[in-house]
Amino acid sequence: MDMFGIILAAVIVGGTGLFIGVFLGISGKKFAVEVDEREEAILDVLPGNNCGGCGYAGCSGLAAAIVKGEAEIGGCPVGGAPVAAKIGEIMGQAAGEQERMVAFVKCAGTCEKAKTEYEYYGIKDCVMASQMQDGGAKGCAFGCLGYGTCVKACPFDAIHVKDGIAVVDKEACKACGKCIAACPKHLIELIPYKQKTFVECNSNEKGKALMSVCEVGCIGCRMCEKNCEAGAITVKNFLAHIDAEKCTNCGVCAEKCPRKIIKVIS
């Protein structure tokens, strides 16, 4: 190839590249989607975990929703009150009070206290195990299977399996809700961080049936309900429930419970 051919090829390639560059530059400006400055500012103060606990596809999704008025200022469970306050300043709105929440596992049926019906040799995953006979090897169909599906789902290393049941580290928990979504038994819920009285059971079995498979499960005897002066505890479907807003953490329900399934921490 002579020198003229080389120069011609270089000019054609360079000209084509220049044309494409100019075209893309003009197109980029013409079809550019304007981003609200507040959205970028909110994204800067969000934790950046992209855990999805807010219900949106990552922090950018939540930031966009807040600016559009589709999500609350305090929509980030990980950032909590401090982040909500910063977002409130950006949006020019009061963030309001943000109560910290944590996950709680409603089961105290450890290896020693809960009966096992058969040996399970399958994949160590709660979802898989729950599809086996009787909803898993554990005698209580409502109890924690202990294979750690929630542990794998937690992006904050805030939940671990101890003695056959999942236990939440409330200090590490960010209330993202990943463990709640992962649990096939639906026995994990969010409760106020300040709550000190808990019912560690999720069973709706009648007393006799429950006692045959668990040493500590709630039998729905209503002793707690009858002795709660604040009216904070009720029994429905053989299971006690505590209303955190009414509960004074007096501990009477725990004292009266014959199964000692109600726990009070100091």
Can you characterise this structure?
Helix content is 33%, strand content 12%. The protein has 266 residues and is an alpha+beta fold. It folds into three domains: 55 residues, 3-methyladenine DNA Glycosylase II, Chain A, domain 3 (Orthogonal Bundle), CATH 1.10.15; 95 residues, Alpha-Beta Plaits; 72 residues, 2-Layer Sandwich (Alpha-Beta Plaits). Helix 2 packs across helix 3 and helix 2 runs antiparallel to helix 4. The chain has a two-stranded antiparallel ribbon. The chain has ten helices and eight strands.
Brief descriptors of the model:
33% helix, two-stranded antiparallel ribbon, 266 residues, Alpha-Beta Plaits, 3 domains, 3-methyladenine DNA Glycosylase II, Chain A, domain 3, alpha+beta
The dominant shape is elongated
Mean pLDDT: 90
Radius of gyration: 27 Å
- What's the SSE pattern? HHHHEHHEEHEEHHEEHE
Low-confidence stretches: none
Total separate domains: 3
Sheet with the most strands, sense and barrel status: 2 strands, antiparallel
Secondary structure elements and pairings:
Blueprint lengths: L2 H28 L6 H9 L13 H10 L11 H12 L9 E5 L20 H5 L18 H5 L5 E4 L2 E4 L9 H5 L5 E5 L4 E3 L7 H5 L11 H5 L5 E4 L2 E4 L9 H5 L5 E3 L2
Antiparallel strand pairs: 1-4, 2-3, 5-8, 6-7
Helix pairs in contact: 2-3, 2-4
Could you provide a short overview of the structure?
This protein has 266 residues and is α+β, with helices and mostly antiparallel strands. 33% of the residues lie in helices and 12% in strands.
